[in-house]
Amino acid sequence: MRNYIFRRLLLIIPTLIGIMTLNFFIVQIAPGGPVEQAIAKYQGIGDANSERIASGTQSEIKKTNTSQYRGAQGVAPEYIKELEKLYGFDKPLGERYISMLWRYAKFDFGESFYRDRKVTDLIIDKMPVSISLGLWTTLLAYLISIPLGIKKAVAHGSRFDIWSSTIVTIAYAIPAFILAIMLIVLFAGGSYYDWFPLRGLTSDNFDQLSLFAQIKDYFWHLTLPILASVLASFATLTMLTKNSFLDEIHKQYVITARAKGCSQNRILYGHIFRNAMLLVLAGLPAALIGIFFTGSMLIEVIFSLDGLGLLGFESVINRDYPVIFASLYIFTLVGLILKLISDVTYTLIDPRITFEGR
Questions:
Q1: 78/51 Cα distance (integer angstroms)
Q2: pLDDT tens digits, residue range 138-195?
Q3: DSSP labels for 251-318?
Q4: pTM score of the predicted model
Q5: Cα–Cα–Cα angle for 7, 8, 11, rounded to 5 degrees
Q6: What are residue 301's phi and psi, to 5 degrees?
Q7: I need a surface site. Which of 103, 201, 210, 289 has the fewest CB within 10 A?
Q8: CA nearest neighbour of 185 among 175, 176, 195
Q9: pLDDT tens across 212-222, in order?
Q10: How far is the CA of 267 from the CAs of 243, 249, 264, 273, in angstroms?
């Protein structure tokens, strides 16, 4: 197993390089980069960066159509060069690429283009919100899906199984962001009830509340986002649990246990559970990365939760390349490590499984 883990760790390096290389060159040819956005703001309403660079250059503006940037007609070449220097586009493409890989190897992600802060500090500040949403969503999804899946397997073909399968299928078919909007309309002052807050993770007076009131306020704000995430994520886990138990129920060792007079609970949880839950529990690390960094993005945007999902969304809109690439790098690295942990979990749950031959 050590050799397999060592080989997988070595494979992380070319995988990371390949993903970062592909995204780096795709982003370079995509229109609407930070220089073009700064030019658009300068020609329109302006912002802090563009006004700082452009001060004193208005009289030097020359009509030109030779710029590589869209919307640069009528903008002084000196101003464009200042923008390129500010955002690091004054260097050749290859030099920027090698510099990025070298800095990221040392976990140096630079500073955000628009927030005047280190990217690492931004990600650390936003991470607690995403972790809160991801942990509670994962916990509730497993607490609901595993007992429900076991019950469906035991009652296979019954009315309960049919009706629960119908509800699970409907929940799976509705996207999480649609559920989030429906919950806002129904319970957050949209058109019916005003029971829950519309945005944020805490109230404005959170620091002035008692400990019990703070806990209550925290879960009060998290109720709708977690509910939207759980309803969209527990369906697959429920059916996986049911099918795993159904496969084990009809095996010879279960028939033998019944012949010996073992109770139903002992058969289910003493004999079947460990074998049936192999796929479900081993997939927990991979489920965490999916819920933390992908499934929560739209939920965070809809409920205005200031987490990693909202940070990534705003960075893409604003073309904040340091934040985009740093988030991609970290999420990919964590995802690859969790995939490796998933494989190791298989061997811990069932020692008969080995990856040494791979």
A1: 14
A2: 888 888 888 888 888 888 888 888 998 888 888 888 877 788 888 888 887 767 777 8
A3: SHHHHHHHHTT--HHHIIIIIIHHHHTHHHHHTHHHHHHHIIIIIHHHHHHHTT--SHHHHHHHHHHH
A4: 0.71
A5: 90
A6: -65, -45
A7: 210
A8: 195
A9: 888 888 888 88
A10: 17, 9, 5, 8
